[in-house]
Design brief:
Blueprint lengths: L1 H33 L3 H14 L3 H7 L1
Helix pairs in contact: 1-2, 2-3
């Protein structure tokens, strides 16, 4: 029973970490886009989308 709780906590922690990384890459992409560094923005948006489906990141790529 305790092993199940530990597994659940580990999975929840990993999901939180992945989501946080996606937001970080998305913010970097927005900054790069605002500074007219489009190739860097594209890289950041793509990294964000690899981790989580963020509609605004898709808009940044189009």
């Amino acid at each position: 029973m305790i092993k199940n709780y530990i597994r659940l906590i580990c999975i929840a922690s990993l999901l939180t970490l992945v989501t946080g990384c996606a937001k970080m890459y998305f913010k970097q992409g927005n900054k790069s886009f605002d500074m007219l560094r489009f190739s860097k923005a594209i890289d950041s948006f793509e990294k964000a989308l690899e981790r989580k489906d963020i509609p605004n990141a898709k808009e940044g790529l189009s």
